[in-house]
TrEMBL record:
This is Uncharacterized protein. It comes from the Eukaryota. The keyword Repeat applies. Keywords: ANK repeat, Repeat. PANTHER family: ANKYRIN REPEAT AND PROTEIN KINASE DOMAIN-CONTAINING PROTEIN (PTHR24198), ANKYRIN REPEAT-CONTAINING PROTEIN-RELATED (PTHR24198:SF165).
Amino acid sequence: MSLLVLPNEALLIISENLHCYRDIRALRLSNRRFYSLLTQCLTQSSTAKCHETLLRCAATAGDITLATELLDNLATKFPSQKKTKRSIQDIDSAIHSHPLFRKGYPPETILDIQSALLTAVKARFKHFVALLLDRGARADFQFPYKIERGRQIASPTPLYLAVRSADNGIFDVLVENGAQFCHSDCPLVLAVRDRQFHMIKVLVGKGRCMHRSSLFEEVLHLNDRATFDHLIDVGLRVDLFGDGALFFFIAKGDETMVRYLLVKGANPHLAGYVSADRWTFYSDFHCVSSDYHSTVYVAILGGHTRICKMLVEEYRVIPDREDLNLAQKTGNRQIIDLLSGLPYDDVPRKPPIYEKVIAIANKDAWS
């Protein structure tokens, strides 16, 4: 039986069971009647029956022609400055501030366009990404949180997916269009872990990121000295974010790197958190104050006499009573002699590293 003689209801049932967007498109383009009948229906078809909306299917395949057609239809369907009837209280703030929302696009359509952007980034179709951005998709859009088992789950940002895909071209396009640089899934942290040096340079140069304080330690615990050096070369400031790295190299006994970081501005007068299983010197808000120790303590614990003398004699780090007690416990006569003649009354408190991290984060937030 020819499809032309079937009633519209039967054609719609057939179209809803075509799982491949190319099959749907072929049916729609086969004649004028099908085109008129199916265009409106298929762009709103459920993901259960079509896997994805037609726009996201086009993004998966990189079909610029189909995407352009769909976006043109949307622009005609939602004329500029049309007001939505939905209460503003029912709309997420990210959608309410979206330029397409101000043009009259409903939230569902905006989410579909933004989802297509994520799909195109993951599929590494740079021209498709550029098309969506040109048609109103936002590179800095953050999807509303999902609630799973009582927990808020954040969707990855387009920039995070570009870093994960190791695509410098798409990464640059997103940055040029105002992509969000920091989120719970941080693009900079991922770029550091994956050794994406171009992306690291761009993201460090953009400035504020609440994860900067842990980047040096991140690469050091991965034994990635090349990325560590690159972070310094591209401008990640040791005087602001290098204190944990200082503790790390003191623990390792690397006198050259300890001196280098001190010259660069790392602060030897702070306290770092020493865990039982490994050295951890950046923010840990759950440990008790007794877990924090001075740079001198860490040097004594590692048996690094020369570093200990450097800290006390050259950088005027004032030892605590527990530092002397540790030296006596380890039996290191040189350090015992160094510390024994010093006063231990009213020794200034050594602030934990995380207090400095919080202060920097608060300053960024208010800037």
